[in-house]
Amino acid sequence: MPSIDLTGKAAVVTGSGRGLGLAYAHALAAHGASVVVNDVDEAVAEAAVKSIREAGGTAVAEVVPVGTTEAADRLVARAVEEFGRLDVLVTNAGILRDRVLWKMTDDDFDAVITTHLKGTFTCARAAAVRMREQGEGGTLILVGSPAGQRGNFGQTNYSAAKAGIAAFARTWSMELGRANITVNAIVPVAATAMTETIPAFAPYVEALKNGQPFPDFLRKGEGFGTPEDCAALVPFLASEAARGITGQAIGIGGDKVALWSHPQEIAAAFADGGWTPDTLADVWPTSVGAELQSVGVPAPKFPEA
């Protein structure tokens, strides 16, 4: 395995003022990449840049809410102005507006779709244009979620956006392959502001803040850890070591890394001349419908007291 050296490469990480995005930005900078940090809060963005520089890395801040074409163009332009090029884009920016379907407003839906789904689209499009102009390939790393892979109660907007992001990765890997631009979705699981409110994890997150590490059943069994545990995947995918990896959804968290499957047919039945409702009802229980798929993010399996 070649060493991971990103010296001379420039990266944009959206939503990188704190949490997972900040961990990704630090990891890229630690392996030699110059990074454009992005956040909607100027103070948070500048603090992130300061922390990267103090660790010996190179970074600048671009304060803009992700979603519009104008914001995407600003982020790409900032990388080119500061570092002369763009090689890596990590689309991490996101928000939550959780509500069950019958209580979710248009604004709740639109805000999450704009930031996650449209923001990923506009930023990836701007980055792809630049990378194709450079003619040297590149890397798009799209941040997904288990909610997008399996659905999650109360997250109509978020689950839909993250499912769309996984579909982006598959589609764009085909469209950008000839330009040597790899596109993958990552599916991180970590203690962040978004997950620490989950009651099952709350005691362990609080213990982590007090200096106690996560137990093995979380780190290995659930693949749940810190943002820094997820960060290694980003410089790896941005490196030459991962040049042959594209169109994939890759999970990481705690001590675990995993490859998610693509949606695919798992059972089929056939009827000469086609189907009627009655023949479907007759055949369904013993053929296609014999073993239906589960939904939702599985609840954590905690050890018995």
Core attributes:
14% strand; 11 helices; Sc_DH/Rdtase_CS; alpha/beta; 8-stranded mixed sheet; oxidoreductase; 305 residues; single chain; globular; Rossmann fold
Tell me the distance between the termini: 42 Å
Output mean pLDDT.
95
Number of strands: 8
- Give the second-level CATH assignment, the architecture: 3-Layer(aba) Sandwich
> What radius of gyration results from the CA coordinates?
21 Å
* Helical residue percent band: 40-55%
Question: Count the helices. How many?
Answer: 11
Sequence stretches where pLDDT stays below 50 over 5 or more residues: none
Class by helix and strand content? Answer: alpha/beta
**What percentage of the residues does DSSP assign to strands (E)?**
5-15%
By CATH, the topology is: Rossmann fold
CATH superfamily label = NAD(P)-binding Rossmann-like Domain
Question: Major sheet: order of its strands?
Answer: 3-2-1-4-5-6-7-8
Count of individual domains: 1
Biggest sheet, in brief? Answer: 8 strands, mixed
CATH class: Alpha Beta
| Coarse morphology | globular
Secondary-structure element order, N to C: EHEHEHEHEHHEHHHHEEH
Describe the secondary structure blueprint for this structure.
Layout: E1 10-13, H1 19-30, E2 34-39, H2 42-54, E3 58-63, H3 69-83, E4 88-91, H4 106-134, E5 138-143, H5 146-150, H6 156-175, E6 181-188, H7 202-209, H8 216-221, H9 227-231, H10 233-238, E7 249-253, E8 256-260, H11 277-283
Parallel strand pairs: 1-2, 1-4, 2-3, 4-5, 5-6, 6-7
Antiparallel strand pairs: 7-8
Helix pairs in contact: 3-4, 4-6
